């Protein structure tokens, strides 16, 4: 049997007998407000902020809220097992940490702290191309734990090729290619602070440490950091890429490839036709297209289109265990969680990230059991009702 994640609640209650209470709230929706109070407006705005007036981030939450769970009674849920197989990997629960760049703006231990937290709980950590720590260092911090690499596909094919070979050598098993960020969106919270960490050489560690990137510089990074930053800005992403370009990735990566940012069923079909292994139904947490469809509203159509051909994962708006239940019931095989773990990191380092993972999975375990399910694969559309009001 798998781990009983729900036991975390008894651990908390037992610790309470000696007067100890959790350092962070167990209602993870409260973390954003706490982070706003404790961290500077630049870093907070960069993580909490969204495109435009924030309408897409709100739509993500609303799309999940519209679905209500219909619990079933008198089913044997005594022994539960949350483990799943995703992309050929055995995972202890249907959860991974989403890629988030520049984590050093949240906490000095940055990506390594989040990666160690994920490793300690057995869930995959997805490292962003735009991390503030080189991928090899993050891999070292994780030992042999499950790790995925997120690619912002650079203009320079030599840098792309170098990133892929480095990630492979560092033990990253799955490639997550973010498609929805060929350029940065209009993000007023960042614009109002004129805050973009990359321009200060933060979030560029994978690039600055890359031999193929360094070839394009007249002087070493430390001698002319501004030139290195401008070289990075010029190649960070490529709005000219199209579907046939995916052949390049398939040629240079022999593990699973997942396309992140898919919302339209035809794009999901194109991913399957291109020989990809999975998609992440995601709108980048509302950070790219203001006025976009809520990610959970897009999920059922994508599952219907390619659920039998591809692994469908989900992110954008996950804050609670019941959110995860709903995404699973709508057809996702697993979810990626983003902002909550970044807040946990900002508030309490590695321990804060572990707190977020354990809260989410304890709540998921209990939600499954109390709704009549002994595992994550049995919930389906019949276990939800959609409120139209």
Instruction: Give the tally of β-strands.
Output: 12
Helical content stands at 40-55%
Q: For the terminal residues, how far apart are their CA atoms?
A: 41 Å
Q: How many whole angstroms does the radius of gyration measure?
A: 20 Å
Description:
With 389 residues, this protein is an alpha/beta fold. It is built from 16 helices and 12 strands. It has helices at residues 8-16, 31-38, 41-48, 55-66, 110-121, 135-142, 157-169, 188-193, 205-208, 211-214, 225-235, 246-252, 265-273, 295-306, 321-329, 339-370, and strands at residues 67-69, 84-86, 89-91, 95-97, 125-127, 147-151, 174-178, 257-262, 278-281, 311-314, 334-337, 384-386. The strands form 3 sheets. An 8-stranded parallel sheet has the order 4-11-10-9-8-7-6-5. A two-stranded antiparallel ribbon has the order 1-12. Strands 2-3 form a two-stranded antiparallel ribbon. α15 (321-329) links the parallel β10 and β11 (334-337). The chain is globular, with a radius of gyration of 20 Å. The termini are far apart.
């Amino acid at each position: 049997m798998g781990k009983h994640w729900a036991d975390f609640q008894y651990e908390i209650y037992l610790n309470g007998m000696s007067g100890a209470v959790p350092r962070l709230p167990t209602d993870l929706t409260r973390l954003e407000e706490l982070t706003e109070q404790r961290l500077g407006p630049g870093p907070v705005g960069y993580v909490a902020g969204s495109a435009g007036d924030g309408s897409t981030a709100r739509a993500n939450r609303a799309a999940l809220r519209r679905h209500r769970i219909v619990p079933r009674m008198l089913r044997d849920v005594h022994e539960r097992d949350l483990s799943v197989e995703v992309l050929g990997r055995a995972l202890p629960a249907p959860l991974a940490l989403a890629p988030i760049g520049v984590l050093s703006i949240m906490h000095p231990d940055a990506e390594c702290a989040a990666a160690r937290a994920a490793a300690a709980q057995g869930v995959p950590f997805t490292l962003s191309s735009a991390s503030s720590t080189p991928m090899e260092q993050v891999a070292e911090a994780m030992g042999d734990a499950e790790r995925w690499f997120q690619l912002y596909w650079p203009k320079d094919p030599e840098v792309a090729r170098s990133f892929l070979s480095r990630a492979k050598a560092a033990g990253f098993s799955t490639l997550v290619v973010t498609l929805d960020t060929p350029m940065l969106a209009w993000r007023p919270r960042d614009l109002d602070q004129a805050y973009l960490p990359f321009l200060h050489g933060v979030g560029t560690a994978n690039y600055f440490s890359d031999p193929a990137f360094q070839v394009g510089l007249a002087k070493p990074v430390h001698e002319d950091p501004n030139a290195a930053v401008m070289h990075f800005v010029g190649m960070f992403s490529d709005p000219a890429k199209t579907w046939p370009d995916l052949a390049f990735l398939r040629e240079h990566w022999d593990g699973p490839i997942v396309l992140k940012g898919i919302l339209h069923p035809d794009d999901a079909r194109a991913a399957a036709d291109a020989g990809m292994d999975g998609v992440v139904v995601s709108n980048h947490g509302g950070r790219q297209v203001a006025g976009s469809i809520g990610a959970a509203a897009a999920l059922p159509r994508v599952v219907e289109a390619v659920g039998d051909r591809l692994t469908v994962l989900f992110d954008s708006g996950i804050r609670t265990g019941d959110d995860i239940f709903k995404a699973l019931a709508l057809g996702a095989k697993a979810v990626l969680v983003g902002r909550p773990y970044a807040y946990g990191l900002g508030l309490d380092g590695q321990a804060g990230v572990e707190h977020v993972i354990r809260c989410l999975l304890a709540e998921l375990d209990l939600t499954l059991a109390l709704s009549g399910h002994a595992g994550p694969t049995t919930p389906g559309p019949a276990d939800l009702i959609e409120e139209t009001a």
